[in-house]
Every structure is written in structure tokens, then in C-alpha cells.
Design brief:
Length: 223
């Protein structure tokens, strides 16, 4: 199958998935939790239920900027999640705490992902410039593009390692939300749906990265 076709399809799908994710988040942000807890309260309860007391829950600016930082041991929740008492807020908060639980329990894929972070951070900063130079000077320095491809391959590997980390964090969140009574039979499917679309963004990103990698390999081989 033509690589350009795959790139175009993944680009279109990424737009669709982002729109669906935003739509689901907005929709479920209007549905209150049966427990009446805020995103911050949900996060603290999930952490404490898993015996984690050294991780702080803090607010952060932006929309869907929620994340877990293992270095500072903080779960940062966006303004639309931290104080909200909605199903969407609970799902997002529990997902981010799922990452904290992964770190606390030594989840293997998250250890691999953490080990790759320094290398991938370096690669991400220079890979586009190396690839650009490699394409321009492919007849003069043919090995340069292969160096760029190697760097890009590391970022692609990171994207695929990220998949099980994100999916597992959502699985932990969904299971805990139900078991703890935060959600009920009416709101649990909503939480599942919201996290499902969030997971799709990582799938599309990984496929797009792989397609781009194959595109550059094709250029190098044509030389």
C-alpha cells in the first residue's frame, strides 16, 4: 500500500479522533458523578486506595493538559478536571492516577518507557533537522539520512511502547471507578467511552509515526 495514502488516512483519522475526544469530553463534562466528588477528590482517593501517599494532586492550566510527573510525584489536573464533579473529570483523573499506580507497582512497560525518555528527548530535538539535511544532501552524504532514520525509529519505538502504558492506565482507571463506587451502571459506560477515544489518539500517533518512518526509509532506498 502506498505510504502517502497511509499518511493521508492517518492524518484524517487523527483529526476525527481529536474531534470525537473533545466531543465526548464536553458531553460527559455535563454529567454529574453519583458520588458528587471532584476530579481532585477522585484522584486522591484512587491514590490512597492503592497505598500511595507521597504523590500530590495539583491543578494546572490548559485544556486536557492532565499528566502524571514521576520526577516531582505530582498528578496535574487541568482546570476543567480538577474542580469538576463530572464523569469526564473522574475518568481523566483516574487515568492519570493509573500512571502513578504503574510507577508504584513497577509496571514493566512504564519502566521501559521511562528508560527511553532521555534518548527520545534528544532524538526528538534534532531528528527533523537531520532528516531534512539527509534528504537535501542524500547524494553527498548518503549515511546522514540513515542516521536520521535511526533517530526517528527511536521516536516510533517510543510511540508503540506508550500504547500499553496508556491502555493499561485506562484499564486500571475503569476497574477502580466501578469497584470503588465512583461510577454506577449509568455513568460507567460513559467513563469507558471517554477513555476509549483518548486511547485512539495514541494508536493513531503510533501508526502515523510508523508510516512516516517507512516513508523516509523509502527515500533512502531509492538513492
Amino acid at each position: 500500500m502506498n505510504i502517502w495514502f497511509i499518511l493521508i488516512i492517518t492524518f484524517i483519522l487523527s483529526i476525527i479522533v481529536q474531534q470525537m475526544l473533545q466531543s465526548r469530553f464536553n458531553k460527559y463534562s455535563q454529567v454529574g458523578l453519583p458520588s458528587g466528588m471532584s476530579g481532585a477528590e477522585v484522584a486522591l482517593k484512587m491514590l490512597h486506595d492503592h497505598g500511595i501517599y507521597d504523590v500530590k494532586v495539583v491543578p494546572t492550566r490548559g485544556m486536557l493538559t492532565d499528566h502524571f510527573n514521576p520526577q516531582t510525584k505530582t498528578v496535574a489536573l487541568s482546570e476543567s478536571v480538577y474542580a469538576s464533579r463530572s464523569v469526564a473529570a473522574a475518568a481523566v483523573a483516574a487515568h492519570e492516577c493509573g500512571h502513578a499506580v504503574q510507577h508504584a507497582q513497577g509496571y514493566a512497560p512504564v519502566r521501559l518507557r521511562s528508560a527511553l525518555v532521555p534518548v527520545v528527548s534528544f532524538a526528538s530535538n534534532i531528528v527533523q533537522w537531520v532528516l531534512l539535511a539527509g534528504v537535501i544532501f542524500i547524494n553527498v552524504f548518503p549515511n546522514l539520512i540513515w542516521f536520521g532514520i535511526t533517530l526517528f525509529a527511536l521516536t516510533t519505538l517510543f510511540s508503540f511502547v506508550t500504547l500499553p502504558v496508556e491502555i493499561n492506565a485506562s484499564s486500571r482507571a475503569i476497574a477502580w471507578l466501578s469497584a470503588s463506587g465512583i461510577t454506577d451502571s449509568r455513568t460507567q459506560p460513559m467513563a469507558i467511552d471517554a477513555l476509549k477515544w483518548a486511547a485512539y489518539t495514541y494508536v493513531i500517533a503510533a501508526v502515523s509515526s510508523l508510516a512516516t518512518l517507512l516513508y523516509y526509509i523509502g527515500i533512502a532506498r531509492r538513492d
